[in-house]
Design goal:
By secondary structure, the protein is an all-alpha fold. Helices cover 75% and strands 0% of the residues.
Length: 214
């Protein structure tokens, strides 16, 4: 039994751990969004799951591989855990707005790493790696906002996708210089979180596109 456990731990890749943590962080944001619309528990679970796996599903379809969550039930259980986590601790969490900001920002960074790493392993060019990392990070949130009948965050002036793009660029640059994956991942996540923090703290925004009269 002990040998089986050691072998199982050995087979768990570093990126798998990142993906599980990112799934939890994004599922929480989906569950919280469902709560603002007074959804029932099942609706909250669905929205949490879609938020957590939406970006990665679209990424895998573009890359021509089976969506990751269909190969491992851990993502379903992770979403269920996030739902229960919110249900039992919501009164405490609702007073901690910074918790949701940090969990969402860290989730962005984690999923940039996951998407970029998968595209890299499949041998795609650097620009594709950056795009896949960005899609993995932001598309789940886009789907969440659409289902909640809200304008997706990345289509507003708030700086949301841009940190993911910059993080992806750092990922491919560090990979080019053959740094190890844990270091690349840490730097990429740190860059995404730092840029999100700076943008929110100083209210930085992308210029709005001016409309033309027809």
């Amino acid at each position: 039994m002990k040998e089986y456990v050691f072998e199982l731990v050995r087979q768990i890749r570093f990126v798998d751990i990142i993906e599980f943590i990112g799934t939890f962080a994004f599922a929480i944001s989906g569950v919280r969004g469902a709560a603002t619309k007074k959804c029932d528990w099942f609706g909250a679970f669905v929205l949490g799951f879609v938020t957590a796996v939406g970006g990665g599903t679209f990424r895998d379809l573009l890359l021509g591989i089976t969506p990751f969550w269909m190969l491992n039930s851990i993502y379903v259980w992770c979403t269920l855990f996030s739902l229960l986590f919110y249900i039992f601790l919501r009164e405490h969490l609702n007073h901690l707005n910074s918790f949701f900001f940090w969990s969402d920002s860290i989730g962005l960074g984690l999923f940039v790493v996951v998407g970029a790493e998968k595209a890299m392993l499949l041998g795609y060019d650097s620009w594709v790696i950056v795009i896949m990392g960005t899609i993995t990070a932001v598309l789940g949130g886009v789907i969440r906002d659409i289902l909640l009948n809200k304008v997706p965050r990345i289509f507003k002036r708030e700086i949301y996708a841009s940190p993911c793009i910059v993080g992806g660029i750092f990922f491919v640059t560090l990979q080019f210089f053959n740094f190890n994956l844990p270091f690349i991942s840490a730097v990429t996540i740190g860059i995404v979180v730092l840029l999100r923090y700076i943008a929110v703290k100083w209210d930085l925004q992308i210029p709005k596109l001016k409309s033309e009269k027809l």
